[in-house]
Fold these 2 entries.
Entry 1:
Amino acid sequence: MRIGVVAVQGDVREHLRALERLEVEAVPVRRPAELEGLAGLILPGGESTAIWRLLKWSGLVEPIEELHRAGVPLFGTCAGMVLLAKEIVNWPERFFGFIDIAVERNASGRQVDSFETEVEVAGIGTVPAVFIRAPYIRRAGPGVEILAEHRGQPVMARQGTVLVASFHPELTDDLRVYELFLKMCG
Ligand code: GLN
């Protein structure tokens, strides 16, 4: 199984390393041709506005829209979640909008307020979760399944083939969140 990681900005290497530990083929995606044959695609944490600008510049926006239409699962972590959300309550634009949630950018606080905690993920159990200027889900549509919360705030969700998490599974050794995504990828 081949899984791509959008590799224009953000914590790409950590995602690739986690996927390699699970013995799937992990490929950094910088150009449209690198989307070919993927069973799933990860959009990493970083800076959503910068990632979006670079995706446009690289001609990747439409090919990723096509990938989504074709039913290939997508997993957005932190900035990746912002990119996949239908609405951003404190930002004037929206990006892909593939999952019916409204997110608030930087809701967990500033960079210096970054923290590691544990969250209870439905079907998995307790996993370590690192929050860095993380988005929180402020609204979720009826088709959205909330998979985890932190202090009453939804921080992980799924709708169809789209999975999102506010936190960074790539910054811990726990691979269960990836296993959940790989299951979606078949
Ligand atoms: N605050 C960033 C954004 O909205 C996300 C931060 C992160 O990915 N660690 O783009």
Note: DSSP finds five helices and twelve strands in the chain.
Entry 2:
Amino acid sequence: METQILPINSGSLELAKNIITGGDLVAFPTETVYGLGANALNDDAVKLIYATKGRPSDNPLIVHVHKDFDISELVTDIPDYAKLLAKAFLPGPLTMVYKSRGIVCPTVSCGLDTLAVRVPSHEGAQAFLNYVGLPIAAPSANISKHVSPVTARHVFDDFNGKIRLILDGGKCTGGIESTVLDCTGAVPCVLRSGLVTRDMVAQVAGECDEYHMVEGERVRSPGMKYKHYSPRCRTALFDYAHRFDALREYRESLARGEKPYIMCDEQVAADMEDAKILNLGRGENEVAANLYDKLREGERVADIIIAVAPLKQDGVMVGVMNRLTKACG
Ligand code: AMP
Ligand code: MG
């Protein structure tokens, strides 16, 4: 199968619609990462997502809808705080989990009675969802456990010959997957951290909990139990206080004749002397936007990525550190 990368225009949207209604997969850009989409109402198409990615069959998918789509067609028991949050943050990088009406095929939710719904803000994503006119189930468009894609080229590197179409909407500006928020309880609860932070949710909803996996307990966010985001090279992670140990590790690796790189933000880079740097930039949003691109660059050029955590650990950095730990921990 030939994999086409096309800019988003009337011709590529028509092709995308034909592929989706024919039960096949289309990769598309969002403001967080690229998604691998299928018609959420077609069970075989959704199963194809799992098969193509090699995704574990108990890790549910997020349904993506156009901004004018009435989500009460798909879910029920929408609490008042969720309406406030939707008004404040949608379209945007926030996924909300509700009680499902059972309209979307059961494979999407892996048999759970809930459904995760997202309204992406990316213009290309909105054009795609509008043109296709269907709810689209989509995980990130990477081979399971590999680093998430933030460019059309990243998607191509993972799925060349395996999918027909990648809609190219440029580099994703957000860079880490959406915040997943459980809206089935009296108080919203962050299941996965992202660009919409716990504090931002609490400011609108009054309160916000954060879920932490407890050994032996039923998992509320099935995706969290999996190792994710791994680059295909050796990795090591140092916290900010141990950044000079990272530099020592770098020198030891060099002395063994390897090609090490240090991955860090601009503040840490200033302490790394002449070491080769995968620079994540300055500030939490820039670091989030660069994280996956630099991990993918690192696996191409480095024998080992030696990551150093930024000093700041709150806000968006909670989500960044969660990914960095799973990638390099
Ligand atoms: P991905 O598609 O790889 O970005 O992952 C989707 C994330 O959403 C995973 O962490 C899932 O566990 C989570 N998720 C999807 N549907 C549900 C649901 N119904 N309840 C709880 N978490 C969900
Ligand atoms: Mg993913």
Note: The mean pLDDT is 96.
